[in-house]
Structure formats: C-alpha cells, structure tokens
Amino acid sequence: MSDAASVLVEVRQVAFSYAHFHLATVNLSLRRGELLAIVGPNASGKSTLLHLLAGLLEPEAGAVLLEGRPVRGLDLRQRARRIALVQQESPLLFPVRVLPFALQGRHARLGLLGLETRDDVKIAQQALETTRSLHLADRFVQELSGGEKQRVVLARALAQQPELLLLDEPTLHLDIGFQTELLRLVQRLARRERYAVALVTHELNLAAEFADTVLLLHQGRVLRHGPPAEVFERELLEQVFETELDVFTHPESGRPRVVLRGAETEGGGAPEPTTS
C-alpha cells in the first residue's frame, strides 16, 4: 500500500467546528484496499470526521479530496456512486421489505427511467448473501432484530458498489461472533474489491485486529495515526480513556490486545474493553 497511485482519499488540513466543539487540523490519506479504524472516547470527533469524509459536512478549513477532487464538489448522484455511508441509525419513514431496501443502494446507478434491471436485483441479492441476510429478503426491515438490521443496512451499502465505504459503529447490536465475522468480511472486501474503508468503533480490540491503520482522536485532536502497534500503547491509552489498562501482543495474530488491568474473567483472562 506504499504506492501513491493507490491513494483514494486525502484529508488536507481539515478543521471543523460546532457551537461547543472544534475538530482540530486533520491530515491523512486512505488507500484502496486499506481499512482505517477511527477510535477515541465519546465526543472526540469520530463521527464528525466520518461525515466530513462522506461530504455531509463542509470543512471550515482544508479539503477532503477523492482522487484529487473535493468531495463537496461532487453532486449527490456522483457521491452516491462512489461513497457509501452506514450510520448508526437508519430511520425508516414507511414499511419496506429487505430486498427493496437493499435495492435502494442501486438508485444512483439506475437509468433515466429509474427502473431496476435484473442485474440490479442480482447485485442486491449478492450483497444480502454476502452479509448472510438473503434469507430475510421478504421480511419487513421494521421487524428485524438490531443485529439483522445492521447486516441489511451494510448490504444496501455494498449494493452501491462504492469505492469508499464509511461505517459508523458497524458492530453495534451484534454479538461477538458476528462482530468478528462482519469485520473479517469488510476486510476481505476491501482487499478484493479495492474499497477504501474507514470505520468508527468503540471496540479497541476489533480495531487492533482488523485495521491496517488506526486514527486515535481525543477532544477533537489527532493524538496518533499509524499501524495498530504504534497507536495502542498503554500510557497513551490510559491517558485518553482515563482507565488503567494493559496492552500485550497476541501470540497468534501478533496484533495488540487491550485489557482492563487486574480485571479477570472466569477463564483467567481479562475482559475486552470498549470505550463507550
């Protein structure tokens, strides 16, 4: 991923402010096939940065570029063809079944008449199959469990066939087994389809295991950006999360593991911390 030609997204000197919050200058690049995890305590600017990447917010300084073009300069249709955003909550205004819901991801790619083709339906079905949701195709989305809905929302995003996939807490409402399976899937898709992926998560160990790079935010400032082993240092994490922690290297994966200091489970290990 050192080839500059593979860079899809550049964040140059970006800053943004709300009434009582300021996101200080952010600089980063995101390459095709790369999975970036954005971590930090609540109210540190994680979702704000994700919305800047999506073009939903306009920076007060700097620019977010997609292959050299400002994201805010793309019209909505162009943006929807290239960027998919999965937010924590996707409110529904009316009842809709799962397959038509997934087909919504194809809208930016439909022809002048706005009618889905067989290929569009096939792509939506493949997206549902990829997220293990095809068996839900005839169910109403409103009837799904939180975990089922999360998988269906991801399928809709995959049906867009984006270049940049943005995920805000994608493992919310999922048990640990499917959390792992989902992020393994996202990682595999990033490699195979050459997506660039940025995800916000409170699950430090999932970020450590699956991310290529990690961006640590605290009170609107970037404290560190780099491979998980460079970001997940005990002293830094204890300062940010105000909790006593231990960090060790997993003997099999070689990735960092973060545990609460002195808190042991029945199996003799320590519970995995989240930052929520």
Q: What does this protein structure show overall?
A:
The chain is globular. By secondary structure, it is α/β, with parallel strands linked by helices. A hairpin with a 2-residue loop joins strand 9 (213-218) and strand 10 (221-226). Helix 4 (118-130) crosses helix 5. It has a 6-stranded mixed β-sheet, with helices on both faces. The protein has a 4-stranded antiparallel β-sheet with strand order 2-1-4-5, covered by helices on one side. The protein has a two-stranded antiparallel ribbon with strand order 11-12. The longest helix is centred in the last third of the chain and has 18 residues, at 176-193. It has helices at residues 46-54, 76-82, 98-103, 118-130, 146-159, 176-193, 204-210, 228-231, 234-241; strands at residues 7-17, 22-31, 35-39, 61-66, 69-70, 83-86, 164-168, 196-200, 213-218, 221-226, 245-249, 256-260.
Draw up the topology in text.
Blueprint: E1 7-17, E2 22-31, E3 35-39, H1 46-54, E4 61-66, E5 69-70, H2 76-82, E6 83-86, H3 98-103, H4 118-130, H5 146-159, E7 164-168, H6 176-193, E8 196-200, H7 204-210, E9 213-218, E10 221-226, H8 228-231, H9 234-241, E11 245-249, E12 256-260
Parallel strand pairs: 3-8, 3-9, 6-7, 7-8
Antiparallel strand pairs: 1-2, 1-4, 4-5, 9-10, 11-12
Helix pairs in contact: 4-5
Protein traits:
276 residues, alpha/beta, 6-stranded mixed sheet, 4-stranded antiparallel sheet, 9 helices, 31% helix, globular
Low-confidence sequence ranges: 265-271
What is the total tally of β strands?
A: 12
End-to-end distance: 31 Å
Number of helices: 9
Going across the biggest sheet, name each strand in turn: 6-7-8-3-9-10
Tell me the strand percentage band.
25-35%
Q: Please estimate the helix content.
A: 25-40%
The secondary-structure class comes to alpha/beta
Q: How is the main sheet built?
A: 6 strands, mixed
Q: What is the residue-mean pLDDT, rounded to a whole number?
A: 90
